[in-house]
Specification:
It is built from four helices and five strands, in the order E-H-E-H-E-H-E-E-H. By secondary structure, the protein is an alpha/beta fold.
């Protein structure tokens, strides 16, 4: 019977760090970032426990990268920031609010394809 050898391999995997492009909004920095913006603003209102929010999150990050310098793309955790959430009457998440000149000009509730959000941003540019 042929001799068998145990071979152990040590694989070293370097974790890839996800670079987040979207600005993290809070109740405290909302006015400074959103209301004083000179560009259109997209705000993703989300929560960690929300499944559809986790589907929309990567799309929002892609949009932040694609529209860098043209639009302000933000994320706001509704559990940690009840002030903004109440101010705009957000009852369902994910909700994406679109601002221009400090005013809400469009709104999207629920998970949607990237193309829907892109067209809404493009309409504001």
């Amino acid at each position: 019977m042929p001799e068998t050898k145990n071979i152990s391999l040590h694989l070293s995997i370097n974790p890839v760090k996800l670079i987040k492009m979207a600005i993290e909004l809070t109740d405290a920095n909302f006015d400074q970032i959103v209301m004083q913006a000179d560009k259109p603003v997209l705000i993703d209102l989300w929560a960690e426990w929300c499944g559809p929010c986790r589907m929309v999150g990567p799309i929002v990050e892609e949009l932040a990268k694609e529209y860098e310098g043209k639009a302000v793309v933000c994320k706001l955790d509704v559990d940690s920031n009840p002030g903004v959430t109440a101010q705009f009457g957000v009852r369902n998440i994910p909700t994406i609010l679109f601002f221009k000149g400090g005013e809400v000009v469009d709104k999207q509730v629920g998970a949607v394809p990237k193309s829907v959000l892109q067209s809404k941003i493009e309409a504001l540019l």
